[in-house]
Amino acid sequence: MASFSPTIIHFSTALSPPYSRTSFTLRSNKSLSLLKVSTHNEVATSDSAFEDPRWLGGTWDLKQFQKTNGNTDWDAVIDAEVMRRKWLRDYPETSTNDNPVVFNTAIIPWWAWIKRFHLPEAELLNGRAAMIGFFMSYLVDSLTGVGVVDQMSNLVCKTLLFAVVVGILVVRKKEDIETLTKLWKESTHYDEQWQASWKDENSSTPKTD
Amino acid sequence: MNSIAFKSFAGLRQSSPEAPPLAAHPSRLARRRGLRVVAGKFSPKLQGRSLRVAVVGGGPAGGCAAETLAKGGVETFLIERKMDNCKPCGGAIPLCMVGEFDLPLDIIDRRVTKMKMISPSNVAVDIGRTLKPHEYIGMVRREVLDSYLRDRAKQNGANVINGLFLKMDVPQDANSPYVLHYSSYDGKTGGVGEKRTLEVDAVIGADGANSRVAKSIDAGDYDYAIAFQERIKIPDDKMVYYENLAEMYVGDDVSPDFYGWVFPKCDHVAVGTGTVTHKGDIKKFQLATRKRAEDKIQGGKIIRVEAHPIPEHPRPRRLSGRVALVGDAAGYVTKCSGEGIYFAAKSGMMCAEAIVEGSENGKRMVEEGDLRKYLEKWDKTYLPTYRVLDVLQKVFYRSNPAREAFVEMCADEYVQKMTFDSYLYKTVVPGNPLEDLKLAINTVGSLMRANAIRKEMKKLNV
């Protein structure tokens, strides 16, 4: 049973001369010798850890977020958590067992999330859709003479409307098209890598499964 | 299931070893479409000797392959470069490996029964509540496991050669041997070994991520992650915390596409991290991992630094002629968890079993079709597992909000039970559909909440 001697063993000494490795290892050999052997960190730190009077026992103390009428101000809780995550992203801290973080975003009720994040965007999109819809129906009426009520009972119009609604749900911004194609490629990529073994260049029928 | 066609039946039914390769070619092309042949059974019987197979590489894959071959009556040569190789490795083996490979329990240094997942904002979740008393993740020292498997192969009749594989001469026809060139270190204490050759009928490439066998058969390359690990000896009172607990840290600071870990070993801990896309920043990630675990490893001393490549997906070609790749050489490391030991050992065993079966216990020559059976069986058994882990990695290691959602989901008991069941027993269990639906809804909810918070964070930056 090999036990570790209390000296620093560089990775390079484990290699025997005739065995050549990939270039990555050669790079790391040089930089390993510069690695400081200490447990004090060399990452960015601020002078103090994250502190907030409302952060108690590893979670947000909801009693301190109460509004005048006694209900909890969920928006303020969300704001506080945003600040905390931003702080930790910029100044990562050690995770301790003495003050474990047990906060779970699920304690904020679903309607608070909807009210804050979904409703404004929904209002915006619906407003834009209504404006465009009104203008388009005016245009169609002036071009074809079909009134609004008759347009709604026409199959072509209904199909177009459906396609537009689905399209907007899926593609909110121009970048979404790229994102979707990338996602599709990503989801099939791994499978392709596995099936590569079955695509022998001599074989005319690859594996089908 | 598949429509791979093998060499034509007519070309192989020869009682004498001289197969006419040129005559076989036109009929081979004509028969390629959809003809599935059990070719091995009609290979020529070997006169006066057993089938010879070389296993290049003596890790878990090589050791298990050599043992299975030797037990099956095949003349086996196991070529290993460094007999006491202390490999940089997490060293975690699932419960099923102990049973399937008859491992003695003293090989296992520690039994991990609890895990802690720590999110980017340090939300810590304990998982392992659902484990039954006899279930655990075994932590082993690679040098102990590897040498045990090699010794067992030797006991079963394999010839263990201490040597470094250099290159291989590929034969031109179906019955000529492969000629392996290697440097033998037997009886030498150091320096360059003696060049020797070895003639075998089939080769199993089990020589790891930088496989030379793979290069000899033009197997192609794979994307790989760098795993960087420091072994740290921490004070005894801090070691008590890691008695049977392993930790996983996720976050952009720790790794952009993988995780940082603290795994307990025999008398120290291994602190490490890995990445595929930002290999140059691995030192930064390691510092961040140490920072996150600082409280628990304070006062520790680094006793060893190590790094190794981890394949991300299989090589384009895992099989060519009578040469098959197994283990890391083939690229059988799962995504998401980066687990490779079990799959290496199992693939070695499966490949060896296919060779033993195709050669009827070493009495007949094998051929590519027999080895392809191993690939079929492997893909059929484990592709679902690999796919599921790939999806998990793509969804949950994508960004900090995704990781926050991941840790939130891990607090759920159903998730813990499913995760551990599939990890410990290596089967994708279907589970309760109602619970699955609840889980899906909760996952979507977590992801949406975390992403909403990140959007707010972006607003603060402006």
UniProtKB/TrEMBL annotation, chain A:
Membrane topology annotation: Multi-pass membrane protein
Keyword Transmembrane belongs to the record: yes
Cellular component aspect of the GO annotation: membrane
Domain of life: Eukaryota
Subcellular location: Membrane
Key words of the record: Membrane, Transmembrane, Transmembrane helix
Name under which the protein is recorded: Lil3 protein
Source organism (scientific name): Flemingia macrophylla
Taxonomic lineage: Eukaryota, Viridiplantae, Streptophyta, Embryophyta, Tracheophyta
From TrEMBL, chain B:
GO biological process: chlorophyll biosynthetic process; photosynthesis
E.C. number: 1.3.1.83
Pathway linked to the protein: Cofactor biosynthesis; tocopherol biosynthesis; Porphyrin-containing compound metabolism; chlorophyll biosynthesis
Database matches in InterPro entries: BchP_ChlP_pln/prok, FAD-bd, FAD/NAD-bd_sf, Geranylgeranyl_Rdtase_fam, Geranylgeranyl_Rdtase_pln/cyn, Geranylgeranyl_reductase
The reaction(s) this protein catalyses: phytyl diphosphate + 3 NADP(+) = geranylgeranyl diphosphate + 3 NADPH + 3 H(+)
SUPFAM superfamilies in the record: FAD/NAD(P)-binding domain (SSF51905)
GO molecular function: geranylgeranyl diphosphate reductase activity
FAD-binding domain mapped to chain residues: 52-84
Alphabetized UniProt keyword annotations: Chlorophyll biosynthesis, NADP, Oxidoreductase, Photosynthesis
General function of this protein: Catalyzes the reduction of geranylgeranyl diphosphate to phytyl diphosphate, providing phytol for both tocopherol and chlorophyll synthesis.
Family of the protein in this entry: Belongs to the geranylgeranyl reductase family. ChlP subfamily.
NCBIfam families: BchP-ChlP, ChlP, GG-red-SF
Protein name, entry field: Geranylgeranyl diphosphate reductase, chloroplastic
Organism: Flemingia macrophylla
